[in-house]
Amino acid sequence: MSAIFCLLLFFLLSPLKVPAHQIPHCLIKGLPLVRNLSGYPQNNFGREGLSHITIAGAVLDGLKEVELWLQTFSPGSRTPIHRHSCEEIFVVLKGSGTLFLAPDLHMRQPAKPNEFSIFPNSTFSIPVNAVHQVY
User: Fold this and answer.
1) pLDDT tens profile 35-80
2) What is the CATH number of the domain that holds 58?
3) Half-sphere exposure of residue 22, counting CA atoms within 13 Å on the CB side?
4) Do the beta carbons of residue 88 and residue 130 sit within 8 Å?
5) Binding-site residues for Zn(2+)
6) Coil, helix or strand for 58?
7) CB 51 within 8 A of CB 45
8) How many domains does the chain have?
9) CA 81 to CA 79: how far, in whole Å?
10) pTM over 0.70, yes/no
11) What is the dihedral of CA 28, 32, 34, 37, to 10 degrees?
């Protein structure tokens, strides 16, 4: 799989040629309205083939209700099987892969996960506490 996934889509078409003091800011914590992602730190969390950039989030920006990530998966890489205490929304910008999603949060026995193909310009959401894996 070679794909880029992100929780919310954010595009930067070209760098701004405006002095910093003239850049419009969001109403949330004075965040810049337009950001250049090329200088943002990347992390792989110890997972080969993963590139993760937090575009906006709790630690860097003090946000409490939403985080925005850009993730790139190299061919053959995958996330661990995991869950989150919040909803997750993905937008696939390019590449293809597979989403594995647990069929039911309340089952007493493990079950075979539902399998969904993901592809460019597709989107999918993961419910709160739903066990899932992107491959």
Assistant:
1) 788 888 888 888 888 888 888 877 777 777 778 888 888 988 988 8
2) 2.60.120.10
3) 4
4) no
5) 82, 84, 88, 132
6) helix
7) no
8) 1
9) 6
10) no
11) -110
